[in-house]
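From the shared-data thread, chain only:
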Amino acid sequence: MKPIVVRVIRELPNRHTYDGWLWLDAYELGKKGEAVARRELFVMRAGVQVQVQAPRSSGDARSLAPIRPVKTVEVV
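Structure, as C-alpha coordinates:
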Protein backbone atom coordinates (compact mmCIF):
# COMPACT_ATOMS: atom_id res chain seq x y z
CA MET A 1 0.00 0.00 0.00
CA LYS A 2 1.40 3.40 -1.01
CA PRO A 3 0.90 6.35 1.36
CA ILE A 4 -0.73 9.53 0.01
CA VAL A 5 -0.35 13.12 1.17
CA VAL A 6 -3.56 15.07 1.71
CA ARG A 7 -4.61 18.53 2.88
CA VAL A 8 -7.33 18.02 5.44
CA ILE A 9 -10.42 20.15 4.96
CA ARG A 10 -12.19 18.90 8.07
CA GLU A 11 -12.93 15.90 10.23
CA LEU A 12 -16.42 14.47 9.65
CA PRO A 13 -17.59 13.97 13.27
CA ASN A 14 -21.22 13.16 12.44
CA ARG A 15 -20.24 9.74 11.06
CA HIS A 16 -20.25 7.09 13.73
CA THR A 17 -17.21 4.85 13.70
CA TYR A 18 -15.03 2.57 15.79
CA ASP A 19 -12.87 3.85 18.64
CA GLY A 20 -9.58 5.18 17.25
CA TRP A 21 -10.92 5.65 13.71
CA LEU A 22 -12.26 8.77 11.99
CA TRP A 23 -13.54 10.13 8.69
CA LEU A 24 -11.65 13.00 7.01
CA ASP A 25 -12.70 15.24 4.14
CA ALA A 26 -9.46 16.08 2.29
CA TYR A 27 -7.69 16.97 -0.95
CA GLU A 28 -5.08 14.51 -2.23
CA LEU A 29 -1.93 16.44 -3.15
CA GLY A 30 0.25 15.84 -6.21
CA LYS A 31 4.06 16.00 -6.36
CA LYS A 32 4.03 19.81 -6.61
CA GLY A 33 1.61 20.19 -3.69
CA GLU A 34 -1.43 20.91 -5.88
CA ALA A 35 -4.80 19.35 -5.16
CA VAL A 36 -5.43 16.52 -7.63
CA ALA A 37 -8.53 14.87 -6.10
CA ARG A 38 -11.04 15.42 -3.31
CA ARG A 39 -11.41 12.40 -1.03
CA GLU A 40 -13.30 11.20 2.02
CA LEU A 41 -10.98 8.96 3.99
CA PHE A 42 -11.70 6.46 6.76
CA VAL A 43 -8.44 6.36 8.72
CA MET A 44 -7.00 5.02 11.93
CA ARG A 45 -5.98 8.04 14.01
CA ALA A 46 -2.68 6.33 14.93
CA GLY A 47 -1.80 5.98 11.21
CA VAL A 48 -2.07 9.71 10.44
CA GLN A 49 1.16 11.73 10.43
CA VAL A 50 0.69 15.52 10.66
CA GLN A 51 3.15 17.75 8.78
CA VAL A 52 3.25 21.56 8.62
CA GLN A 53 3.78 22.91 5.11
CA ALA A 54 7.03 24.78 4.48
CA PRO A 55 6.74 28.46 3.46
CA ARG A 56 6.66 29.18 -0.27
CA SER A 57 9.81 30.34 -2.04
CA SER A 58 10.20 34.10 -2.45
CA GLY A 59 10.09 33.74 -6.26
CA ASP A 60 6.48 32.55 -6.12
CA ALA A 61 3.99 35.33 -6.98
CA ARG A 62 1.64 33.99 -4.32
CA SER A 63 4.32 34.58 -1.66
CA LEU A 64 3.11 38.20 -1.33
CA ALA A 65 -0.10 37.00 0.28
CA PRO A 66 -0.06 36.22 4.01
CA ILE A 67 0.67 32.57 4.63
CA ARG A 68 -1.21 30.70 7.31
CA PRO A 69 0.15 27.32 8.38
CA VAL A 70 -1.46 24.47 6.44
CA LYS A 71 -1.52 21.03 7.96
CA THR A 72 -1.09 18.09 5.64
CA VAL A 73 -1.18 14.47 6.63
CA GLU A 74 0.32 11.33 5.22
CA VAL A 75 -2.13 8.47 5.32
CA VAL A 76 -0.49 5.07 5.55
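The radius of gyration is 14 Å.
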